Amino acid sequence: MKSTIAGNEYVRPRDGNVYIGDTRVTLASIVILWRNGETPGAIHDEFPTVRLAAIYGTIAYYLDHQAEVDIYLEELDTLWRAGRDEAEAADPAFYARMRARLAQRQAGREVGAASEPTNGTPEESVLGSPTA
């Protein structure tokens, strides 16, 4: 996919993708988090290699070029879905096993959530409540 994103000092198209400055963090990573309600500070916590000013600059770029960036993100999503579908078609048994494991894990969490409350220590979240 050839990007139509022009870029600026914060947003730079290169190597077939759009990155934040000279980092390997993508425009999509920052914009999606921001659109999902993350603050620039929280985004910086997720990507500490990106200067906070660059995160604000990326958000400003998005706001100034929203239609263009939204089209770019839709194209990325379409490519990702096509790749996922192709991978699943190549090995459907693997994906069936992974879905079954995920469902089993989620069912275990639901059962655990219905059990006695814990004091919230990390050990209890992994190991369950201690016994007397």
Please provide a written account of the structure.
- Strand 1 (11-14) and strand 2 form a beta hairpin.
- The relative contact order is 0.10.
- Helix 1 packs across helix 3, helix 2 crosses helix 3 (52-64) and helix 4 packs across helix 5.
- The chain has one domain (11-113): Winged helix-like DNA-binding domain superfamily/Winged helix DNA-binding domain (Arc Repressor Mutant, subunit A).
- The protein is globular and about 45 Å long.
- It is 63% helix and 6% strand.
- The model is unreliable at 121-132 (pLDDT under 50).
- The longest helix has 25 residues, at 66-90.
- The chain has 6 helices and 2 strands.
- The protein has helices at 27-35, 40-46, 52-64, 66-90, 92-114, 122-127; strands at 11-14, 17-20.
- By secondary structure, it is mainly α.
- The protein starts with 10 loop residues before the first strand and ends in a 5-residue tail after the last helix.
- The chain has a two-stranded antiparallel ribbon with strand order 1-2.
Characteristic terms for this protein:
132 residues, mainly alpha, Arc Repressor Mutant, subunit A, 6 helices, 63% helix, globular, disordered C terminus
